[in-house]
Structures are given as structure tokens and as C-alpha cells.
Specification:
It contains 15 helices and 3 strands. The protein is mostly helical. It folds into 3 domains: 91 residues, DNA polymerase, domain 1; 184 residues, Intergrase catalytic core (hpI Integrase, Chain A, Orthogonal Bundle); 31 residues. The protein has a 3-stranded antiparallel β-sheet with strand order 1-2-3. A hairpin with an 8-residue loop joins β2 and β3. The protein is globular and about 85 Å long.
């Protein structure tokens, strides 16, 4: 029996296959059934439709299963790719592709942190604060937050130091090392994480766990579900009265990258902290947005307008403006 722990990709593939079976699919399957599943799950009018990006993961999961267990792979047929391309075209025409999670501005980030500084008292509040501050400073995906393990924490018992997360690969085969900073100030992610571990008596297993209505903390043998992570973070954003656009757990991933670039942090450092495969992903998806957020272009217009306004004042002081108005009225 193979007891090797499953990677995040293997878990994701297993989940896709389970949902495919729940829909009514069977393995091995036919090309026509995969097309039917994609058209149903990705239908534009469907309330809880699956995006094409998600369906491509399903295709990869089906392809992987057939490559390992069958003599042909219907998921790689050109008709499957054509089906996904048609759905992607519909997304573009309906402008669905634009509904992506946005990042937080610096001011919204400050508002969010201000809320976290007063979120303590109960075990759940302390857990949620630790979860949120780690999301903020690492930019981890929801699944990466949910599967954090105590054994991956370094410096945990050395007070007034940064905590290092030395975690197993998530989507890639690359290990991730991230820093949870100790600031010694009101906003101190390392202290908040240590408080959570102490109050909730966590010394092994997964560090974020379900808590019952009676305050009983789960054993930590299963990862905290990414949907639970997303709900907690969305509720905290709403409580901070941050509105506009799509705000989800992924908002923090975009925020970490964007604010990092704006503050002259290299894309290599950002990729290492957030667990991106390489710096190219940060450059391709976040740098241009971050540059525009610096506001240099509108600031240049403001400065130019100030200079022009001073010239007009001088022009007015010489009574030339009054003469100009009179001349215009006499025409």
C-alpha cells in the first residue's frame, strides 16, 4: 500500500474526478460525455457555473486518469479543446473574464489591519486574526493557508523573532519559504500567530482548524477547507467596510504582489514569499498594475496644472486678464 502523502495537485485531481462522477460521469469515459459535462458545468446562464480555467483543470484530471489507467485519452481529443475554446469565447463576449478578484489599495490595507488589531477575545477571533494576517503578508492561496502545518514553522518558540514557514510544495514541486514578520508593534503577525497557537493549544498537525459552537477545537488531522478560509477573509473584508469589485481570499495574493512592486521589492523576492513558480508570473500579471497604482502619471498632470495656475495668477496680477475679457466681449 502506498502511504506517500498526496500533493495538492493530486488532491485537486481527485476532487475533480469525484465531482465528475457525482454529475453522472464514469471512468473510463467517452469524448462525448466530457463535452456534455463541460457544456453543462460551463453554461453561461448557469448560476454556479464553472469558469473555463477550472474546466481546464478537470480536463487535466481526466487526461491524467486515462493515461494511467486506460489505453486512450478522450480528454485530449481536439473536440474537447474546441469545446473549451468556445466557452472561453463566450466568457469574453459576456465580459465574464473581467470579474477577477481585485487587490486592496494601501489605504484599504491600513483599514483592514486596523480592524484586525481589535479582533481578539474568543478562540475563533484569535484564529481568524492569525489567518488573515498570514494571508496579508504572504499572499498565499486559500488552499495554501488551509493546509499549513505546525511542523513547517521555524523559530516558533523563540519570542520576538520572525517566524519562518518552510512548507512543502503546493501546486508546483518547489518548496516555499516565507517570513511572518515580528514587528514589536500593534500590528505584529508573528505575535498574533504565536497567540493563536498558544490559545488554541496547537502543537502539531494543521494550524488552522474548525471550532465548534462550544469552543472545542478540532484535532487538526484534516486541512482547513479553502472555502472556510475564503468565507472568513471575505467576512473580515466586509467588516472593515471595504467595498467595490470582487473581494475574495485571492485579493490578498494580488495585494501582496502589487504593494510589494510599488515599494520596490523585486519580483524574485515576491515570488519566493508567495510561492509563485517563478518571477516571470509576477512580472506578467502584477507589475503593470502596480506601476499604474503609483499614480505618477496623474501626479505629473497635477504638477503641470499647478505651474500653469501660477502663470495665470501672474497674468492676472498684470491686469492683462481683465483686458483680455473686455476685448473678448467687444468682439
Amino acid at each position: 500500500m502506498n502511504n506517500t502523502p498526496k500533493t495538492a495537485t493530486e488532491k485537486q485531481y481527485a476532487s475533480c474526478l469525484a465531482q465528475f462522477a457525482q454529475w453522472g460521469g464514469h471512468l473510463p469515459t467517452r469524448k462525448s460525455q466530457i463535452v456534455e459535462f463541460f457544456q453543462d458545468a460551463g453554461a453561461i446562464e448557469r448560476v454556479n457555473r464553472k469558469k473555463v480555467a477550472s474546466l481546464r483543470v478537470y480536463r487535466a484530471a481526466l487526461s491524467d486518469w486515462h493515461e494511467r489507467h486506460w489505453d486512450e485519452d478522450p480528454a485530449s481529443h481536439k473536440d474537447i479543446k474546441r469545446c473549451l475554446a468556445d466557452l472561453a469565447k463566450q466568457e469574453r463576449s459576456q465580459r465574464i473574464y473581467q470579474h477577477k478578484s481585485r487587490d486592496l489599495t494601501v489605504e484599504e490595507g491600513a483599514r483592514f489591519i486596523a480592524l484586525l488589531t481589535v479582533k481578539y477575545g474568543s478562540k475563533v477571533a484569535i484564529r481568524n486574526r492569525a489567518l488573515a494576517c498570514i494571508a496579508y503578508v504572504t499572499g498565499y492561496r486559500a488552499g495554501m493557508l488551509g493546509d499549513l502545518q505546525f511542523d513547517w514553522l521555524r523559530n516558533i518558540h523563540i519570542e520576538e523573532t520572525d517566524i519562518i514557514i518552510d512548507r512543502d510544495p503546493f501546486k508546483t514541486r518547489k518548496r516555499v519559504r516565507s517570513v511572518i514578520p515580528f514587528t514589536g508593534e500593534l500590528f505584529c503577525p508573528a505575535s498574533w500567530l504565536r497567540q493563536h497557537l498558544h490559545v488554541n493549544n496547537i502543537t502539531q498537525g494543521y494550524i488552522f482548524r474548525e471550532t465548534s459552537a462550544l469552543g472545542r477545537v478540532a484535532t487538526g488531522r484534516a486541512p482547513f477547507h479553502r472555502n472556510s478560509v475564503n468565507i472568513i477573509l471575505k467576512n473580515l473584508i466586509k467588516e472593515a467596510k471595504i467595498e467595490g469589485g470582487k473581494l475574495t481570499a485571492h485579493t490578498f495574493r494580488k495585494t501582496m504582489a502589487t504593494l510589494g512592486v510599488m515599494n520596490n521589492v523585486s519580483s524574485v523576492e515576491i515570488a519566493a514569499q508567495g510561492g509563485w513558480m517563478d518571477a516571470g508570473t509576477v512580472n506578467n500579471h502584477y507589475v503593470s498594475d502596480a506601476i499604474s497604482m503609483l499614480g505618477r502619471a496623474p501626479l505629473a498632470l497635477v504638477q503641470a496644472t499647478k505651474i500653469a495656475a501660477r502663470k495665470i495668477e501672474l497674468f492676472d496680477d498684470n491686469n492683462s486678464m481683465g483686458s483680455l475679457i473686455i476685448n473678448e466681449q467687444q468682439k
